[in-house]
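Below is how a single chain appears once it has passed through the pipeline. First comes the sequence as given, then the structure the pipeline wrote out for it. We keep one example in the README because the format questions we get most often are answered faster by looking than by reading.
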Amino acid sequence: MFNRTTQLRSKHPCSVCTRRKVKCDRMIPCGNCRKRGQDSECIKSTKLMATSSSEEYLPDLLLFWQNYEYWITNVGLYKTKQRDLYKIQSNLDEDINECRFWMDYLQKDQSFQLMNFAMENLGVLYFGSIGDISELYLRVEQYWDRRADKKHSVDSQYWDALIWSVFTMCVYYMPVEKLEKIFSSYPLRDHLGSDERLSWSDSMQLTMYQKFARCSLLQLKECDFMAYPDIRLIQTYLILATTTFPYDEPLLANSLLAQCIHTFKNFHVDDFRPLLNDDPVESIAKVTLGRIFYRLCGCDYLQSGPRKPITLHTEVSSLLQHAAYLQDLPNVDVYREENSTELLYWKIMSLDRDLDQYLNKSSKPPLKTLDAIRRELDIFQYKVDSLEEDSRSNNSRFEKFIALFQISTVSWKLFKMYLIYYDTADSLLKVIHYSKVIISLIVNNFQVKSEFFNRHPMVLQTITRVVSFMSFYQIFMESNAVQELLVDLTELIANLPFIFGPKLDKITYLIERFNKLKQLWDKVRLLDSGDSFYHPVFKILQNDIKIVELKNNEMFFLIKGLGSLVPLNKLREEYLFEEDGENSKEPGDFRIIVEEFQSEYSITDILS
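Resulting structure:
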């Protein structure tokens, strides 16, 4: 499709490495320059020949996308929290009073209705995290028995936090019409300061979910969980992580996750291997701990980023290291049944990890690695297709949906990698195909009255990745098939659950921003620049990355006692508006175009 003879390397070492007298890997940008933060200078120094055809330099732009996707659609949109300690109000009493209102708002009969919904519909999200599911009803009963007791033990407070995490999950996933039948809107009228009669709406459900989450977190604080760690801290967190809580509060979620990892290791519960001398109770406990471990690894991987240096999932090696061994044994059934749902999900997610590790690296994935992932996906597709599905059980259908959606997401990422690094004959068609598969899985949930399946956080993040990449591709290479896909994706986003909150508006803004970049690309033509990447669009995209990087590197501004070591304005100036030197043909006009666009369509508007 495209001429890829120079897609990965320049013909000559970059001028930066030449000047420093170090070996250059000739990637664009090279590994040395990326480590030193000199990406822009390195790219300019490669002197790629400008042509009138986008096909000549699209491959290099797609390589750049790997870095852009990591910082913008992964870190920026979902893992960056804008913070200003001078503006954030600290009022613990007010927070406690707010939580008390919502805890009083929930009545006993309503709590059991929520628990019934969780048991009948959401089992796949939390059953593996709890040893005895039937015990939950007893714990809810005990919760109401001790409501009048002002002196709670740490043990009872942990149970309260765990139970409220289940309530929070129910409020998040429950359709509004069912929520309206359980809860009255009248008590909320005075509390929310509304003079008019309130009726249940999507926005009210979002508010209720957020407040219920705060109630669960408050009860964790009352446990003094850092002084008295307990496995129920991990269980509570894993249940809250089935909602958008990690996206809404990334810094808080990372702190809690780090404490969960510490608790897991502190009690040595990561050693759940079955032994011959285990008694029945111990065997059951180890099975539960194993499931918790793999679910915790999944949360840990999904939250990976520059703000989370502590990891757990890296202790589990790549599935591909074991796949080659299995294929050498002809008597081994590679289609054997998985031991648990949690292990199946983790194995699929580990393939996602094998692909996403190249997002922010200059190294190229070996073709044999991509082929091995493709074989493993075929195996998992066979396993999931073979799963017995009870059409009358939402738990069963939800379980299969999550597995199929995971496989489709990883398949989409896989063929995106084929397109970017190898441009195989059918790579773009496969990317479009799996985009449509992802859309069809979501649309099918609307058709079969299972819309709440689409509230799973992975739906939001996958759609963000897909629509962003296709919008980026359309900037430089127009395609009718891609344009039709973007229309479908835009319509789908407009119908995604309102419970995703402000993130939906940010995704819509990101799409609009790509459309404006497309208009700028078509409008501005640079003649005789000697560099294909010397264009306002590319400069804007580079600046986007640098801005998000700055937001995730606040060391200077956290050391309040020492003051700012480097003024923010100066730092931004050095990062974003480097002198273009002799490569610049029209530096004044060029800079004005970039600054005007960034002012009108700031990338910081997508940050939390």
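Residues 5 and 56 are 10 Å apart (CA to CA).

See the next section for the split statistics.
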